[in-house]
């Protein structure tokens, strides 16, 4: 059998078998339209409302504040656009490290609605200054939305949600956090952390693709972004994805019931990967805060290899290893992502190779050994090629 080592869990995770069984069962039995008043419809509606209550309980929120959507991208777009369209937001404070779905939605509000967009500049480790944030909040009377992600999907840097929420409250701003990489992996108490909006995607914690939710604080009075029927507390029209919601609920339950065990195992795996890489690849470093287990998400490790090899993703794939290169590839040419361009200097960009390795509770030390050995082999052939290049130049 061919080896398959999956180390791209920040992109998506394999669906848990229990999630799959729950979805199959729901599809088979709860096929009614949740808006229908007959029993078949009401049974499907009950599935949805049970998941809503279950999620709200874990996050310490009201059930009516959980709005099911098709994914993290939709949740983030819905929140950002609705804040501008219906809550009279005239200024957005964000950072250049946000996921594309947040960055593009914000750019769109600037282009189409003339919203003022202000970017907090990260330092070389990708850390944002909360003093700068406070100065910006003080500097204008415009209705402001802060949009800053909880954990960066490329380097794993974590934001102090509580401090930012408190600043938002102090200066009467709204606070949206893209929590797609952290819901299902970190505890979140939405009573203790008074943020206004958050987003979740089931496929990041062994749930199905095409299912997520937006947390929308009741007091925010957001209006719908997708128009039509009165589904989802009149905030998101469209016949609900009942099986997807059931799968999200099952994945959410498994993630939070096993949070301690899973996070302990994954943190150990991450630590092991850091040690093995340091021992085997002299000069390896880690981007942003990802090498520091206390200030970064335990599922993500952003590696900087001390040699240039744009083909490494392909070479690892040929050995059965799935990783992300932390780069956007177009027409065969790979160029570093915006996040890495912010964090790395020209010399590093020219002479090194980034890799994003991301783990789940299914990742084993043997898989890390196989991955590190493969990188080591590629690294020696890359140095040979670099040396040969130098001779022929
Ligand atoms: N936000 C972050 C931080 C992500 O990592 C992702 C997915 O990669 C998204 C948003 C988009 O989520 P989805 O794939 O559910 O649209």
Automatic annotation (TrEMBL):
Cofactor: pyridoxal 5'-phosphate
GO molecular function, one term: cysteine desulfurase activity
A Pfam family it matches: Aminotran_5
EC code(s) of this entry: 2.8.1.7
InterPro entries referenced in this protein's UniProt entry, alphabetically: Aminotrans_V_dom, Aminotrans_V_PyrdxlP_BS, Cysteine_dSase, PyrdxlP-dep_Trfase, PyrdxlP-dep_Trfase_major, PyrdxlP-dep_Trfase_small
Source organism superkingdom: Bacteria
Annotated catalysed reactions: (sulfur carrier)-H + L-cysteine = (sulfur carrier)-SH + L-alanine
Descriptive protein name: cysteine desulfurase
Alphabetical UniProt keywords: Iron, Iron-sulfur, Metal-binding, Pyridoxal phosphate, Transferase
EC class: transferase
Family: Belongs to the class-V pyridoxal-phosphate-dependent aminotransferase family. NifS/IscS subfamily.
Gene3D superfamilies (UniProt xref): 1.10.260.50, Aspartate Aminotransferase, domain 1, Type I PLP-dependent aspartate aminotransferase-like (Major domain)
Iron found in the keyword field: yes
Ranges for domain Aminotransferase class V: 5-371
């Amino acid at each position: 059998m061919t080896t398959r080592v999956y180390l791209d869990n920040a992109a998506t995770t394999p669906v848990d078998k229990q999630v799959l069984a729950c979805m199959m069962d729901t599809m088979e039995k709860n096929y009614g339209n949740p808006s229908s008043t007959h029993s078949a419809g009401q049974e499907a509606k009950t599935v949805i409302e049970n998941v809503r209550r279950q999620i709200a309980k874990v996050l310490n929120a009201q059930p009516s504040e959980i709005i099911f959507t098709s994914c993290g991208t939709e949740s983030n777009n819905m929140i950002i656009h609705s804040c501008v369209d219906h809550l009279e937001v005239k200024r957005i404070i964000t950072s250049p490290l946000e996921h594309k779905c947040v960055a593009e939605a914000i750019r769109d509000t600037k282009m189409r609605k003339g919203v003022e967009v202000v970017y907090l500049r990260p330092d070389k480790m990708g850390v944002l200054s909360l003093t700068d944030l406070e100065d910006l909040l003080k500097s204008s009377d415009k209705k402001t939305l802060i949009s800053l992600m909880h954990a960066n999907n490329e380097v794993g840097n974590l934001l102090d949600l509580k401090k930012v929420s408190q600043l938002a409250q102090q200066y009467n701003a709204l606070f949206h956090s893209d929590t797609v990489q952290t819901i299902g992996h970190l505890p979140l108490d939405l009573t203790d952390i008074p943020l206004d909006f958050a987003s979740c995607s089931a496929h990041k914690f062994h749930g199905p693709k095409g299912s997520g939710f937006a947390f929308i604080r009741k007091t925010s009075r957001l209006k719908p972004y997708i128009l039509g029927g009165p589904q989802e507390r009149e905030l998101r029209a469209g016949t609900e994805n009942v099986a997807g919601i059931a799968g999200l609920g099952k994945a959410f339950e498994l993630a939070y019931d096993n949070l301690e065990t899973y996070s302990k195992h994954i943190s150990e795996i991450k630590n092991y990967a850091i040690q093995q890489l340091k021992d085997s690849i002299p000069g390896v470093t880690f981007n942003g805060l990802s090498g520091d287990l206390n200030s970064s998400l335990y599922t993500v490790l952003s590696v900087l290899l001390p040699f240039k090899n744009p083909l490494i993703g392909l070479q690892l794939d040929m050995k059965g290893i799935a990783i992300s290169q932390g780069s956007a590839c177009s027409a065969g040419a790979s160029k570093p992502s915006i996040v890495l361009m912010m964090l790395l200097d020209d010399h590093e960009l020219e002479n090194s190779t980034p890799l994003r390795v991301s783990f789940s509770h299914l990742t084993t030390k043997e898989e890390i050994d196989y991955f590190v050995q493969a990188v080591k082999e590629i690294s020696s052939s890359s140095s040979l090629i670099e040396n040969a290049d130098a001779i022929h130049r």
